[in-house]
Amino acid sequence: MKPIIFRQINRKVGLIAALVYLVMAFGLLFGLVGFGKVVNFVNSMGESSGGTKALGLAVGIAFVVPVFFIARLVYPKLEVSIEGQNLIINKNGSPLHQININSIASMAMNKPNINSLNLYSQDGGLIFGFQPFANNTALPTLVKAISGVKKFKATQGQKSIFGGKVTTTDYHQ
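RESULT FIELD:
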């Protein structure tokens, strides 16, 4: 099977990284120049010369560029493949998890979150959860690959989110 590669959403790490970055960025800004100077700078942006606007642009870029590096930490790259009866999950090129497909009793797509796939054991415990970032084809491809090794029956339902309907699918033996 050709590996399925996507970036996995990690909400806990994302929230912590965003909060730490904001505290550090604003703490550094206010610590270096002071709160009063920042307020005066923002107030003078509309009436000032190009030099002040260029400085504002440079400061803005300095605050935005680190976001792209943080995003690489928050959305690690997962590579999922099937080798025989095993589902192999690698994170950023390193082995993360190996799951025997026969130990998967059920799967749930778009439950509890949109664009997510959870694998469950016989006792109902969560084995692993997938939630790709900006990739709508990874989960259906993964379900098809797993179902090619072990047969599942699909039951579809719907869930209301923000006034719209999202199709949910439960896969059982």
